[in-house]
Design brief:
- Residues 6-231 form the ABC transporter domain.
- This protein is an alpha/beta fold.
- It contains eleven helices and 14 strands.
- A hairpin with a 2-residue loop joins strand 8 (200-205) and strand 9 (208-214).
Length: 303
């Protein structure tokens, strides 16, 4: 039995002369939270729409929960909870009426389940949708995605418009879904929200996969920015050839450099002198991801 909830193999999608996706291959394992990150226009929504057969591939194949999104769309959609990046429903309805209608299309969802999700997200079910702010309309979208406890949640920019407290509630809901054995595929352009819950992360840029790894492993690739002060000036030549040391500069008694990998060689070299100060800052993951977004990082694609 396949362990993949989503299996994308050499997927390419073009819109005439415009690029959508180029030779994209990745797998999402059953029961994991998978973060799909990239700047706006990178191809995240195109990927999701292909998974749901809302757009058709130019080439390549896609399997979702072991099924073909095109040939098995009806069966497949019953097992998926989907939140579009541009969630739109009839604004004349009350939020509760809309959710009851959508629940009916799915064969019915217990009213207490809808009410409990609405309470957690602080959604007023009696408010008309056209009167709701963007963040509150997003809450309606989240409730309809989660309410039937689907095997697979596909969420496109799910925290758009939400305030920080509700964002945290959403992340708690994602963690609970994983604990219940559900799979979550979540696109975003914000690293911090994905880092909090994702098991693995893929980064897409200009329609191509540029990194795929566990969050912990991506963090291990980040570098140190070191600043060492000495009691007396030190010769730059002692540090220039050290493994992993780059961007080296010595200004009087202060040495600054970047360290990729273990800082042990740098520390041992510094210990030959009298050290009066030491500071080493780990690269922020937002900065690491920004380097992938802008193309300043090497490909980090892993299994």
């Amino acid at each position: 039995m396949s362990t993949a909830a989503i299996d994308i193999d050499h997927l390419t999608k073009t819109y005439g002369t415009r690029r959508g996706l180029t030779d994209l291959s990745l797998q999402v394992r059953k029961g994991e939270v998978f973060g799909y990150l990239g700047p706006n226009g990178a191809g995240k929504s195109t990927t999701i729409r292909t998974l749901l057969d809302l757009v058709r591939p130019t080439s390549g194949t896609v399997r979702v929960l072991g099924l073909d999104p095109r040939g098995d769309a009806v069966r497949l959609h019953r097992r998926i909870g989907y939140l579009a990046g541009d969630f739109v429903v009839d604004g004349r309805q009350k939020a509760g009426e809309c959710l009851t209608f959508l629940a009916g299309l799915r064969g019915g969802v217990p009213p207490h389940r809808i009410a409990a999700l609405a309470e957690r997200l602080e959604l007023d079910l009696d408010a008309r949708i056209k009167s709701l702010s963007k963040g509150n309309r997003q809450k309606v979208g989240l409730v309809q995605a989660f309410m039937h406890r689907p095997e697979l949640l596909i969420l496109d920019e799910p925290t758009s418009g939400l305030d920080p407290l509700v964002q945290q509630t959403f992340l708690d809901m994602v963690a609970e879904a994983r604990a219940d054995g559900q799979t979550v595929f979540m696109s975003s352009h914000i690293m911090s929200e994905v880092e909090a819950v994702a098991d693995r992360v893929a980064i897409i840029r200009e329609g191509r996969l540029v990194a795929l790894d566990a969050v912990a492993d991506l963090r291990a690739r980040s570098f140190l920015q070191a600043r060492i002060t000495f009691a007396a000036p030190v010769p730059v030549e002692e540090f220039a050839g050290l493994p992993g040391v780059t961007d080296l500069a010595v200004d009087g008694t202060t040495l600054t450099c970047r360290v990729d990998g273990s800082p042990d060689p740098l520390i041992k070299a510094a210990a030959r002198h009298t050290v009066t100060g030491l500071r080493a800052d780990t690269q922020d993951l937002e900065e690491l991801f920004y380097s992938y977004y802008t193309g300043r990082a090497d490909s980090g694609i892993a299994a």
